[in-house]
Amino acid sequence: MAQENEPSPLINEQQYENIAERNDAATDDDAYWQALEAYRKHPINLNTAEENDLENLQLLTALQMQNFFSYRKLFGKLLSIYELQAIPGWDINTIKSIFPFIKVSNEYSFSEILRRRWKGGENYLLARTSLQLEKAKGYIKPIRPSSYYLGSPQKIFFRYKYQYKDLMQFGLAGDKDAGEQFFKGTQKYGFDFYSFHFFSKNMGMVKSLAIGDFTVNLGQGLIQWQGFAFAWSSNVLNIKRQSAVLRPYNSAGEFNFHRGAGITLQKGRWQATAFASLRKLSANLVADSSGRQDYVSSLQPSGYHRTEAEIADRNLLRQTALGGNISFIQSGFRIGANVISYFFSKPIIKQSQPYNLFALQGKSWNNESVDYSFTFRNIHFFGEAAVDKNFHSAFINGTLISISPTIDISLLHRKIDRAYQSLYANAFTKNTDVNNESGFYSSILVRPSSAWNIGAYFDIYKFPWLEYGVDAPGAGRDYLAQLNYQPNKIFSIYVRYKNERKRHNTSNMSAPTHQLAFVSREGWRAEANIRITKAIGCRNRVEAVWYNKQSPDKEQGFTIFTDWRYAPFYKKFSCNLRLQYFETAGYNSRIYAYESDVLYYYAAPSFYGKGLRYYANVNYNFKKIFQFNNNRPIFLTAWLRWSQTIYANQNTIGSGLEEIRGNIKSEIKLQTIFGW
After folding, report:
1. pLDDT for 278-314, tens place per residue?
2. Is 56 left (phi over 0), alpha (psi -120 to 50) or beta?
3. CB 3.0–4.6 Å: which of 353, 479, 543, 567 could bond 525 by disulfide?
4. What is the pLDDT of residues 470-513, one digit of tens each?
5. Do residues 647 and 609 make contact, with C-beta atoms less than 8 angstroms apart?
6. Residue 219: left if φ>0, alpha if ψ -120 to 50, beta else—which one?
7. Contact residues for 588 (Cβ-Cβ < 8 A; gap 6+)
8. What is the C-alpha to C-alpha distance for residues 268 and 37, in angstroms, rounded to an integer?
9. Residue 420, exposed/middle/buried by CB under 10 A (0-12, 13-18, 19+)?
């Protein structure tokens, strides 16, 4: 126990950068981060852990988990956490990544835990506000006030949560976006969005019970996946969707969740889940002048209700969802059947565009699927086969293979019909929407020693039908290679090369129709981390991007930044700083970079143009600020963040209502957490 308790990052920063790049936006769902923070405070007991417990970490491959359970079944309960080194496929880097979230110990009996759930847990109240100091165009009233932000520029979020380990939690959250009204106008009750949840698990036959807001994750995401899911990254083996079917939801995002009730029951080797949801969605309503029923042309998932037009779209569509899953689970084998149905108060009819020819339409929709996974020796197989309401099909099949203790490979094939549609799908596909795609992904991870590892993947894909901005069937291919070197706890470095090539419309205005051509995007990155002292750490990154460098519209760019972190052990104060320079020729050569932020919030903004950015985070733990008569203290932790971007050769920043006059954009953010 004399070893140092070195703090480790809760998340994989490269994964968040890739998600932001894929969706061209960050997500407001911080449920995964909350779960990891809860596991850090109350680690998973490996002697009683079930498969879902390890799946929720999303840090282990399915093959590693199966090897763990086989080891525990063969040798019994673990006596020490250092036994993990004897499990096949568990290398030192894997153990380090999950070390903050696991333990080996005796556990309370079920009856003791059940009695303690309501009074032995922890409460916390989070309040966060942020403000962009420069006034955007949307806050300046025009002569005709039909299109401007009705509310203040502050962004406000709060969350109360009670949690007993990972067994029970409930809470309430509220969110006000910048530009939305607050306790006035259309928001007389305060926040634009409220969320309530209650979630409990492991109560005899009841494996999980969700009331209020929750997410549903089925199979490999072909018909439903609302939880956190990784995309293409340097973690080349992380291709399988892994999560419990029901998960609690209390984040700021206003679209990707259900509101109602769900329950999972387990008896022997059989597990069944059923859920029902009723909620209202923001949508663009079109009045039909022919006398027929009004219809919805598009859903509005952003959650913004700042202008009169956005407020008019609020809660116009009522959505009812019913669904479930039944699975048979045996050691190393699982097969399940999934079904989900949606019913809408008004029909959905997308705009008449060629790429919308097969879009989801009508007042109801349903999807069904069968998913499977099984392990044979050192090979793990998984997959899902799905159909939609019109019997259009989608298939995903993957394999994880441990060739030797130092070499792992993965293979994944996907074939999704051009007309296949699903509302909340999130599978391992190139595009955000799970449709109109077929492809083959392969990757390899080599660990020649404990200090070195090399990861690489290659993906080739086709789009049988049109896409937005691509006026003919398209195709593409991606590959990535990353070399990591970490000889000790003090120093680490990695170098990465990534290449994408995909068909897009050309800008040839002389042709009667758009012509397609392959557009390439190359990226190179090097990053080094060094711990100067026990309290001071430094990170430096340089990254360069080349867009379509063989054509006349080529672009290129680069960024370089340095981070400094001061975090003394067992002290109240910590801080981190970044200084960054970026220079790109345009939006196509933009570069995404993860930024440290306040707890439970992350940012991975894109940088293009030319400029300088810096930010500073300060965290202070006030420890005990008050104590009740029954000796229960209240703790307070506070964060303050300041960030600023200074652009060169620009008179305005942004566009539309977000346009700022000048070349400086600044933000200040404050967060406090009261805990007891």
Report:
1. 999 999 988 876 666 788 998 999 899 999 989 999 9
2. alpha
3. 543
4. 888 889 999 999 999 999 889 999 999 999 999 888 766 556 66
5. yes
6. left
7. 521, 547, 548, 555
8. 31
9. buried
Q: Which class for 185: exposed (0-12), middle (13-18), buried (19 or more C-beta within 10 A)?
A: exposed
For residue 418, the model assigns a pLDDT of 94
pTM for this structure? 0.91
Type and span of the H or E element at 98:
helix 92-98
Return the C-alpha torsion angle 70, 73, 77, 80, nearest 10: -20
Nearest-angstrom CA–CA distance, 579 and 595: 11
CB-count burial class (<10 Å; 0-12, 13-18, 19+) for 290: exposed
CA 287 to chain CA centroid, Å, is 36
How much is the pLDDT for 547?
94
- Which whole number is the average pLDDT over 175-204? 93
Residue 235: both structure tokens together: 């973690």
Burial class (CB within 10 angstroms; exposed 0-12, middle 13-18, buried 19+) of 109? exposed
| Residue 476: closest CA among 507, 521, 508 | 521
pLDDT score, position 93: 79
DSSP state letters, 288-324: -TTSS--EEEEE-TT----SHHHHHTTT-EEEEEEEE
pLDDT at 186 over 90: no
| pLDDT value, residue 94 | 84
Q: Cβ atoms within 10 A of the Cβ of 569, count? A: 11
Strand (E) or helix (H) holding 369: strand 362-376
446: β partners: 407, 454
Task: Report phi then psi at 74, rounded to 5.
Answer: -80, -40
> Would you state the pLDDT for residue 525?
96
Token pair listed for 572: 């109240």
Across the range 214-237, mean pLDDT stands at 87
Cβ proximity of 166 and 154 under 8 Å: no
User: 370: which 2 tokens?
Assistant: 């069968």
How far is residue 61's CA from residue 399's CA, in Å, rounded to a whole number?
11
* Nearest alpha carbon to residue 323 among 340, 343, 348, 304: 340
How many C-beta atoms lie closer than 10 Å to residue 449's C-beta? 10
Question: How is residue 422 written in tokens?
Answer: 């699903």
What pLDDT sits at residue 76?
A: 87
Residue 173 phi, psi dihedral angles, 5° rounding:
-135, 150
Residue pLDDT, tens place only, 609-619: 999 999 999 99
Q: What is the DSSP string of 459-471?
A: EEEEESS-BTTB-
Instruction: Check if the beta carbon of residue 325 is closer than 8 Å to that of residue 337.
Output: yes
Residues 6+ positions from 404 with CB-CB distance below 8 Å: none
Across the chain, what does the average pLDDT equal?
A: 89
